[in-house]
Specification:
Layout (H helix, E strand, L loop, with lengths): L4 E5 L5 H14 L14 H13 L4 E7 L2 E10 L8 E8 L8 H16 L3 E7 L3 H9 L3 E12 L2 E11 L2
Parallel strand pairs: 4-5
Antiparallel strand pairs: 1-2, 2-3, 3-4, 5-7, 6-7
Length: about 170
Amino acid sequence: MRENVFLRRATPEDASAFLALKKALDVETAFLMLEPGERLTSEEEMRATLERIAAVERDYLAVMECDGELVGYLSAQSGSYRRNRHSAYITTGIRQAFCGQGWGKRLFADLIGWAKQSGITRLELTVMAHNQRAIGLYKRMGFLKEGVKRHSLRVDNQYIDEDYMALLLD
């Protein structure tokens, strides 16, 4: 594990760097939603998003920073209504050069600690069914497969299934 990497909560001042990270991930991996060039978010829109996350106590966004550059993130957006406020949907991405070094586990451990303190009792995500590295991490963190979204995505002209996974914390 690299010594010069650390985790912290994102702030609105990270807008430019966070947008750059997301665009780099769009190019680097086909396991995320957007294709290269498809992300149209402006820096101002990203700043507004980060301001909203900072203002909502039940939302979470942690970033990984290495030598002043953001190299990974994990976010959880809680439900907006009384009936689903206990639940949070997760998205995550880590630059390839930092994968397989335990950073995903550290991000998820931090998220789980935050969720327990915030009254979140259900963490959920979707993952492409062939993304075995991510599925392995999620299983090690206690997530269970709840179902399959068949032909959920179309990547490189092929239909891809997504697995629903969740972790119950109560």
